[in-house]
Amino acid sequence: MKIKFCFKGIGAKLEKIVILLCLLLLVACQPQKKPEESTQVQVKITQVVSGQTLKVVGLGDQPSLISQVRLLGIDAPDLQQRPWGDAAKERLEAEVLEQPVILEFDVQMKDQFGRSLAYAWKNGVLLNEQLVKQGYALFVGRSPNHKYDLRLERAQQWARLMGLGIWDPQKPMRLTPAEFRRQYR
Question: What pTM was estimated for this model as a whole?
């Protein structure tokens, strides 16, 4: 005796219900997003590469491996963009070197260069925001990572109003970091 499974003998409504149940089962079997706490990890900073890039240990499966991390939502002046690039790097160094930092990830975890993308927290302070608020970096939203865009945008407005760092009216930065890189590389 041959058993044949088909929907022909079943009514159209029942057929749709069976298809819907199969789709729900497939969706339920998909891997779920990890809980919120798993999007954060404590790391140790080994080097500040620039005002927006760090080298860290403690990221990923191999805790002794050094990884590069690009801070999300900011664009710090290039190191050749003096004096602002050096100032941004020195400020970030003063905040993080040899101290544990918590990295928080957003939607996209890596950039096209293989660097991890993260927000950096130290003692409950969002360092990305501090760099922008003190005038050491610009806010630059990059899709799909928008978790703290509003905070960063407000920090930039504050720095501009106060004339801090790159916004100093006596010696303002004339080219954005992106413009500088396009023009001089």
Answer: 0.77
